[in-house]
Amino acid sequence: MMKYIDFREQREHGTKEFPAAVYHVTSEHPRYNMIHHWHSECELILVREGRFDLSTDGKIFELDEGDCSLIMGGALHGGIPTKCVYDCLVFDMNAFIKGVPGCNAAIQPLLNMEKKISAVLKKGTEPATIAAAAVDAMLTKQSGYEFYVIGNIMSMFGSILSADEFVTQAEPTIGDIKKVRKFKKVLTYIEEHYKEPITLADMAKQCGMNRNYFCRAFKEYTSKTPVEYLNYYRIESACEQIVGTDDKLIDIAMNCGFNDYSYFIKVFKNHKGVTPRDYCRKGF
Q1: β-strands 68-71, 42-56 pairing
Q2: Do 67 and 101 contact (CB within 8 A), yes or no?
Q3: Rounded Cα gap, residues 152 and 20, in angstroms
Q4: What pLDDT shows up at residue 193?
Q5: Cα(25)–Cα(284) distance, rounded to whole angstroms?
Q6: pLDDT at 9
Q7: pLDDT at 177
Q8: 273 phi, psi to nearest 5 deg
């Protein structure tokens, strides 16, 4: 059994009574790029337009229009959208099946990642069609939508289980589990300290690795070098502050760990294709 929940996104999705939330993401969204993260809830990613390159388990999977991906709780994942519109439905499956013994027993091998499904649910397949219906119900929130959301999620899992098409995988070693935990520890460190000066040595220290090995291994999991990821996280945080506050750009830059405003502008343009000032003017 493998559950990666040692360090996770500290965010409540939905309410205690209905633990589910949906996020509609376009290029105007301050968190358009999906930074690597994890949470104890499951997540459905549905691509409406364009392409979404999903990173999970250290591998990249391409999702095209109409494709879905079901991410199990605790899995480390992130993604890069290209001319993309996508929806994310995050839900607590354990809460939904609580008190339903038959369903609970049947689904635990998936939730515990003892069995794995394909990372991509292709457009037109039964699981993808049902998943899209669950997302649509959550977005429209018509009267009684909760029943449609839970019902479709249950049907999606039923379809996946009845197909009995699981990805063959080797049993994770203690070393594999420890490595993932180490990288989650680094990401948590970046999340908590990105406003402060952070060196490559600081990040490598979180893993207990030498810098060269750390850089190679980190890129395998995130497709970015540690420094690229740090700047990426800082720019995404800056976009959120630009949209959500009236702070001056130079103050936002300093607030996100950039002590050199010119360097902030350069890195911002590399990531977003526009300067911070143009980003403001376009009303993202």
Answers
A1: antiparallel
A2: no
A3: 13
A4: 96
A5: 12
A6: 47
A7: 62
A8: 80, -5
Quote the crossing angle between the two packed helices 126-140 and 145-163, to the nearest 10°.
Answer: 170
**Cα distance between residue 95 and residue 70, in whole Å:** 17
Asked whether the CA dihedral 51, 53, 54, 59 is positive or negative, the reply is positive
For the chain, give percent helix, strand, coil, nearest 5.
Answer: 45, 20, 35
The full set of domains in the chain, from first to last, is 20-163 (2.60.120.280), 174-281 (1.10.10.60)
Asked if 182 contacts 222 with a C-beta cutoff of 8 angstroms, the reply is no
- Residues with Cβ within 8 Å of residue 262, at least 6 apart in sequence: none
What is the mean pLDDT of each successive set of 10 residues along the chain, which is 284 residues long?
Answer: 36 78 92 88 97 89 97 90 97 89 83 86 96 97 95 95 70 59 89 95 92 90 90 94 93 96 96 91 66
Supply 59's token pair: 């591998």
pLDDT of residue 147: 96
Q: How far is the C-alpha of 132 from the C-alpha of 127, rounded, in Å?
A: 9
Burial 137-152 (b: 16+ CB within 10 A, else e): bbbeeeeebeebbbeb
Instruction: Please enumerate in sequence order all residues whose Cβ is within 8 A of that of 132, keeping only pairs 6 or more positions apart, or say none.
Output: 46, 66, 68
